[in-house]
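Box 3.1 A note on notation
Throughout this textbook, protein chains are presented in two layers. The first layer is the amino acid sequence; the second is a token string describing backbone geometry. Keep the layers aligned when reading.
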Amino acid sequence: MRLRTLASLGFVALLSGASPVTAPIASGAGSSSVASSIGFQVPSVVDPIHTNGEPDIAIDPQGRIFVSGPTGTGTQRSTWFGSVDGGQTFRVMAQKIPPTSVIGNPAPAPGGGDTDINFDRSGKQYFADLYALACLRVAVTGPTNSGAADQENAYPGGCAGFPGADRQWLAVYDPAPGSPNQSAYKAAGGKTPLIYLEFNNVVGPGPNGGAQWNKSTDGLTFVNATADEVPATGSIGAVYSPFGPDGYPAIDQVTGKVFQAAGCGISNGCTSNGIFLNIGTPDATGTLHFLDATGSGQDLTKLIKISDTPTGSPDTLFSVLSMDSARNLILVWCISSSTPSLRQVFVSAASAASGWSSWTPPVQVSDASTGTGDAVNVFPWIKAGGPGRADAVWYGSDRNVDPSTQSNQAWNVFMSQVVFPTNSTGAVTGAQPTKTLVKVTPHPMHYNDICLMGTGCIETQGNRNLADFFVVTIDKTGAAEIVYDDTSNGLVQTVGGLVNPSAFVDHPGAGVITVARQSSGLGVFGTPVTGPSNAPVGGLNDPPADGLFPVIGGSDQRGMDILGSSMHLSADGSTLNVSARVIDLSNPALTAAAIAGTTNVQYVTRWQFGDTLYYAAMENTPTNQPSYYAGKVQSIDLCSVSACFPHVLTYPEPGFGGIAEPGTITCPASPSPSNPCTVTVAVRVGDIGMTSATAGTSLLEEVGGYAFAASIQEGAENNTTAESDTVPLEIDGVCCYNFKASVQNAPPPACHEADGNGDIHSKGRGKASFSMDKDRCEDQDKEDLQARDDDANMNFQATEFQSVVFNDATDSVTLLGSGTDNGNPVTFAAVAVHGPAGIGAFSLTLSDGYANSGPLLDGSIELH
């Protein structure tokens, strides 16, 4: 969260197309290289419904990927996701507080602030969430079936006794049996894993309020972990709190030591203006003894100086430490300066052999170039891998302006892969490192300001939609996995054409949680990594048996199990056919009944075109009344301490903002994973921001298909339902790919034909005749449906087909649309059953009250 100002130091804090850029050689730095080989897959969208700032990502020892993040103190809720398919799509993790909503989607609370995830060696997951700058919530799940169940404590870590808390981090000590061990705690038989929870005492003494360290062996119940803390007389605070709050800690699995780095100045009692390291050493009880502790207070001269920072404060959200496989510490920090061009990212390293006291000269890894778009930097993070190797990431803007100013700057994610030379033991030598700079994001992920003014952002109407940080981690191959927010969509809620709610400043840009995975080049273990290309394709497949309910550890729902998504642009460029293959679409009533509280099911394909999010969808009801539509994604904006901004994405139906489009469902007689159903929405390109002349060369990015279960229509969602998290629940998804028809167009949708004519009994005494020709995909002729019943004074002519549903199991087709009866507009539903006279059947229902059905008296109906 960190809404405080940054002036307290007293001196000047999977998945995308990568664009290589060249970094200059910084003063005192090593050589740079062009990142021609490092590439990223098409980014994955973590959640197509919820948005949040400062997303976190972590990978457990089994390789499972998890993402978390706050939706804001206004909602008092955070998001927590686990991936069931290697990080391509994610599902909401089960939580117990509060009770589940009507569709079984928990709204985790209390919370809504900073989140952190960590693991022990078994894969048990520890989760921490900030609650309104007042307290913390922790949860534990796993190691098996992680997320299906969890345990929680709403007020852990002793913070119930403190007047405030902010920016909590987790560090887990869990050394492997038989590994080298110098820990007094382990030698004394201390129980592991030992979980440390550190948070910032926002009103305590010392720089930034001081760090509050707590310990636990179950991740739920915490006690104080700082032996030298001295309570102040008559106060629940303390005279001494360890230096280093806000800096992301590292932990050594050999000694059990914890490390935090942060900026400090002469005015605070440090030896110079720079960045310093504090080390906490555990005793036999796991209690930590820090360098700056004196037993009666604090002495900052005992800290280890990492580097002087003469151009500004290094304490800018956040300084982050990571330990590589050879126990070298590698630190990243970003300078805050009144001169925007000096706001750059630096790294430095130190070895265990030096006691982490001798640090390499700082190396600038950002390039300060407006040409590459990396002129000004914020929010650094780092993850180390093999000896001396690490990936550092940050947000970089294309203009030399203060990040907090609204200067129409464009922001991208940048990554520098840094390699520090090491000796035969793996320790860094101090020689100049090499660095490889790459732009990660395929398009700018944010525009205009990123406000760093703390509480001043409220007064200046500064944008804090991104909050305070984003995270990089690595998988077992050494490939970088970067989670970031993409607010480039510029979404903002409107009611009656006005920004809502009008009483607050409403910041545009929904923070779509996005993951980029490195797919080429060297990883941080020094070996090549591989993955899918980001080149445009016609579609993407998805394995069966992952359409689960409950979404973690549940059973497969055939009616929601997506097997693939594809797009095909018609030859004339006028229609984009958006298709999803689902195992079984033939029984929507059964599908809805299997998911408690569901009133409709939705199959949504969404993508980004330029800076706009679009979608195409089919919604069905238990009575099998499908509707097809497309349009621009909309948002519902909720309010927090930082003003109001989009928290929920919606894909509204016609009448709520969506545009009706024709669509088709086809199902074989026996749907199966090898022979599934298909739904296709035939979208007019003008409804999704293109023209027939431009559609072929238009790049649609991050295309993903999803199956949602919903208790209300999306267009009926409002601020109240969003606040209670009564939103659709994602059951399955396939994500993500880029599409450009001129590069690779998917095959056209399968052509089903419906032809026939004949007579059935009239509603009166004679015959009612009909004829239909629904096979334009084969012969390109005009499609038609006509019917006449003179005794009932009915003379019908179809003018538009909205829905066509082929069901091979019943050998039938259902047609829905609009037309005229004796020249008067009506809507219609017609059902035709295959067969000649005496076997086939036809029914017609019109909105003006006419309804008739019966077997064929003559003629035939052919379905192909």
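The radius of gyration is 30 Å. Confidence is low (pLDDT under 50) at residues 1-36, 96-102, 232-237.
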